[in-house]
Amino acid sequence: QATIPPYCDEEGLGYANRGRCRTILSGRGAAISVRAVPLPRSVYECLCSRKLVEGSEDDLVTVGKALKCGSDEDTFAAPAILEVLLDLLDDIDGNGNALLESSALSRGYSVKAVQSGNGEVYVPRNEESKKGEGNNAADLEGLGEYQITQKFLHEGLCSPGDLSDNSGSTSDADKMALQKWRQDMSGSALAGFQLAMRTGPLCEEPVRGVAVLLEAVEIAVTGDAGKRCKIAKDLTGGMVVAALRSGVRCALLTRPARLVEGHLRLTLHSSLAGLGSLHAVLSKRRGKVIRDAMVDGTDLIQVTATIPQAESFSLAPELLKKSSGE
After folding, report:
1. Helix, strand, coil proportions of the chain in percent (round to 5)?
2. Taking the mean position of all CA atoms in its chain, how far away is CA 163?
3. Which of 94, 212, 255, 286 has the most Cβ atoms closer than 10 angstroms to its Cβ?
4. Residue 303: which H helix or E strand, with range?
């Protein structure tokens, strides 16, 4: 579904793979790595109530293993996984979706400043452009930071305790990038998540049952290592909102998805004479009869049925006309 029209026209889909996407802000001044994974209803209820819900243990363990919430069997227990998810939870909506922030990002290990002469982060090129042009210094700026952040993507939601030892020393530029992320960009990322969940990539329908994980951030800076650095380009809140919305939509398109059609539940009363016409109208409109039973003390039959919302227009006039008011 990522290569067949019309799903392949989403901007930035070429940077997404297997539920992950590295979305690049307008002007290439920064990049944010996001991941979309299924969120079972029982786990969502645990996050809402902030306690373990009965019957959710298996789903919590499954989500914990998928997100690598631990490294041994003790940390893969349902209470321990729920504690990790609650600690890293940023937002939760009413449609079964949640926004999480990886431990490496919240502690600043996966927020990297990219020393760039042109003020842009590293953008991987496709195979065709690699064949047509050779590598130059401008194209390789930020490659080191890009490779470092890619390593953090495999660490999982809860990184090991000795992660700081493997991430190298934190420079002043990285500290400045972390401050920029926390003060000016994280709030806009939350708004981008809410917008992406409100209008999904399939027919602009709302998204349900998805957990979005923020994994890494790269911000382009200018200035030498010995001098004071500054953010290379202005990063407005609208740019972050648009980039994260596009990134989440692209990540969703690289994973299996389905459209859910809304149905109405109807309770109808009819006499025996109009029962045939009632069933004919429901069948024509893709309705499904769930139950029918006689109403005590009358000659009426109570019919419980479901019908798609798109097929419900002018239903009452047609029922009256076909059944002659019965």
Report:
1. 40, 20, 40
2. 26
3. 212
4. strand 301-308
- Distance, in Å, from the CA atom of 148 to the CA atom of 121, rounded to the nearest integer, reads 13
Structure-token pair, residue 270: 């009819």
Distance CA(153)–CA(216), nearest Å, equals 8
Which residues is 253 bridged to in the sheet?
A: none
The continuous run of DSSP H or E covering 325 comes out as none
Q: Are 15 and 21 in contact (CB under 8 A)?
A: yes
Question: Would you say residue 170 has pLDDT above 90?
Answer: no
Distance, CA of 297 to CA of 178 (rounded, Å): 73
Residues with Cβ within 8 Å of 51's Cβ and at least 6 positions away in sequence, in order, are 82
Could you read off the pLDDT of 94-111 as tens digits, one per residue?
Answer: 899 999 998 888 888 888
CA dist list (Å): 313 to 303, 307, 319:
19, 11, 12
Token representation of residue 121? 């982060």
Q: In the predicted model, is pLDDT for residue 72 greater than 80?
A: no
Residues 6+ apart with CB under 8 A from 109: 152, 159, 163, 164, 167
DSSP letter for 72, please.
S
DSSP-H helix ranges across the chain: 41-49, 57-67, 78-87, 103-106, 127-132, 137-140, 143-152, 163-166, 172-180, 186-198, 237-253, 275-284, 315-323
Q: Are 204 and 150 in contact (CB under 8 A)?
A: no
List, for residues 264-308, the tens digit of each pLDDT value: 999 998 888 888 888 999 999 999 999 989 888 888 889 999 999
Task: For residue 10, give the DSSP letter.
Answer: S
- Of 324, 325, 322, 326, which is closest to residue 285 (Cα–Cα)? 322
Handedness of CA 113, 117, 118, 122 (dihedral sign): negative
Quick one: DSSP state of residue 14?
A: G
Beta bridge partners of 36: 212
- Average pLDDT of the segment spanning 192-203: 90
Residue 164 has a pLDDT of 46
